[in-house]
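Support request from a user on the community tier.

User writes: "When I paste my structure tokens into the form, the page sometimes reloads and wipes my input. The last time it worked, I copied everything first. Here is what I submitted, just in case something in the input itself triggers the reload:"
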């Protein structure tokens, strides 16, 4: 059984959480066990509501739902005022419907993954009016990802594309957005890279000797002997960031809902009408529609000719008591701390060929075997998750407006690096639309002008 609970904090705010041991968790909140937790500086806390559900999936879904609710709605739940709860759920939709009936927006954004989140944030900063449509699908890559920003890639640990430009930008922008929302959106957690073979150790050493950026060796071979089994030593990748998407996405969603800027429904492209200089969708009209809908764009008539190469990835959510949470650990796969104490994310794989979105037995077995051989302490697998990355053949994003239909734009193709590319290119797209500044030529979809104009 899993418990979802609400705590009333000393400053009057509410904190919603999920656990499989409620007594222990409440005690941990009360005693300030988690220094990074929202409640730490808001003690004493009081348990004001709880319920229990059978599976982690159901509980996690409800927890996210409640986290996205307004204060009034949470209070209606705490008081068990069901008629008011229903009334409040209705009024959110009707206030948005009212605004739509009254007006015209600058932008309609499809999707509130990490791309749609950043684009709507920058539009807001530019004082543009917009509405986001998102279907609240649970297994999107933005919701499932570990959110790691690793500045090196591949067996040779070479620098990722635009690392020098992206790292300082990301650090500042996620911190700014997190501060605005009152959450920690980004933290630094360097990777301890356990070499799976002598050859990999040699390759890492060579990279260090070549004075490669972001890599170093630590002269404490036995530092992790009590928690991991390893034969070939380890190196460190520094700096590495983790984005707390599990907090950021629902908090931003709630802000949009509270401002009547998000409509929770499936967007149907058959209802989109393109007119001169504007678009309309049902009773919404806007100057432009921007697709931030991940792999769905690969099926859409405007953008299906772009060289998308969707890629399936899986991960396990694992409970590992008392594993030090100040690093990400890597040995073939990444083991990343989640904000829930003792919970870790282990992944991933990269499958280019697949015929469904379901988790596979093969991944689970491989990941479980890896953990059994690597970890000294016991662990228990809580969940097996799977999502499809909106990857592209050239490993570069798709950003800009359609060459034939300037009222239709896209921010997509983030592949394996959505958490670093999305903010950077959302800002470029916003500036491009506002003041006509150029989009990076390797990302600008005008490079596909010919194929985009085919068969529309
Ligand atoms: C297992 C895994 C691990 C990953 N790890 C990392 C990592 O550590 N670091 C990193 O940088 N990246 C990682 N990624 C990649 C990253 O998750 C993606 O690049 C990124 O999330 C893409 O974001 P997006 O907003 O463009 O698309 P999405 O996350 O797909 O968001 C699209 C949104 O549009 C909505 N939508 C789609 N169609 C419709 C419709 N018709 N109507 C209404 N709404 C619609 C969806 O519900 C969704 O909310 C990982 C991906 C996977 C699968």
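"...and here is what came back when it finally went through:"
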């Amino acid at each position: 059984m899993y418990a979802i609970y609400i705590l009333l904090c000393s400053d009057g705010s509410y904190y919603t959480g999920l656990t499989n041991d409620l007594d222990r968790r409440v005690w941990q909140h009360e005693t300030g066990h988690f220094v990074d937790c929202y409640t730490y500086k808001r003690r004493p806390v009081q348990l004001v509501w709880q319920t229990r559900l059978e599976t982690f999936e159901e509980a996690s879904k409800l927890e996210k739902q409640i986290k996205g609710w307004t204060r009034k709605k949470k209070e209606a739940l705490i008081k068990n005022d069901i008629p008011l709860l229903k009334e409040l759920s209705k009024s959110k939709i009707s206030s948005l419907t009212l605004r739509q009936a009254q007006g015209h927006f600058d932008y309609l954004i499809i999707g509130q993954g990490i791309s749609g989140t950043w684009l709507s944030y920058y539009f807001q900063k530019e004082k543009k009016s917009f509405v986001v449509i998102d279907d609240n699908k649970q297994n999107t890559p933005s919701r499932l990802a570990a959110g790691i920003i690793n500045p090196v890639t591949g067996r040779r640990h070479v620098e990722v594309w635009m690392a020098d430009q992206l790292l300082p930008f990301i650090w500042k922008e996620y911190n700014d957005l997190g501060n605005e929302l009152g959450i920690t959106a980004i933290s630094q957690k360097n990777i301890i890279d356990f070499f799976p073979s002598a050859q990999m150790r040699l390759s890492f050493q060579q990279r260090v000797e070549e004075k490669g950026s972001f890599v170093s060796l630590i002269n404490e071979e036995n530092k992790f002997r009590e928690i991991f089994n390893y034969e070939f030593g380890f190196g460190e990748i520094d700096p590495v960031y983790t984005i707390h998407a599990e907090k950021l996405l629902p908090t931003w969603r709630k802000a949009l809902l509270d401002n009547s800027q998000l409509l929770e429904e499936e967007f149907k492209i058959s209802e989109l009408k393109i007119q001169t200089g504007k678009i309309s969708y049902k009773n919404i009209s806007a100057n432009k529609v921007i697709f931030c809908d991940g792999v769905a764009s690969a099926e859409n008539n405007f953008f299906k000719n772009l060289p998308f190469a969707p890629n399936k990835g899986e991960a396990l959510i694992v409970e590992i008591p008392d594993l030090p949470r100040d690093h990400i650990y890597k040995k073939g796969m990444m083991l990343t701390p989640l904000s829930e104490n003792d919970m870790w994310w282990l992944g991933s794989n990269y499958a280019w060929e697949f015929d469904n979105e379901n988790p596979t037995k093969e991944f689970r077995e491989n990941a479980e075997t890896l953990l059994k051989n690597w970890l000294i302490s016991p662990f228990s697998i809580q969940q097996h998750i799977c999502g499809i990355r909106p990857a592209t053949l050239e490993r570069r994003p798709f950003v800009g407006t359609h060459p034939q239909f300037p009222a239709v734009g896209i921010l997509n193709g983030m592949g394996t690096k959505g958490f670093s590319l999305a903010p950077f290119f959302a800002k470029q797209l916003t500036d491009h639309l506002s003041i006509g500044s150029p989009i990076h030529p390797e990302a600008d979809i005008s490079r596909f002008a010919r194929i985009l104009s085919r068969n529309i």
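Agent notes: The reload is a front-end session timeout and is unrelated to the input. The chain has a mean pLDDT of 92. The chain has twelve helices and 24 strands. Escalated to web team.
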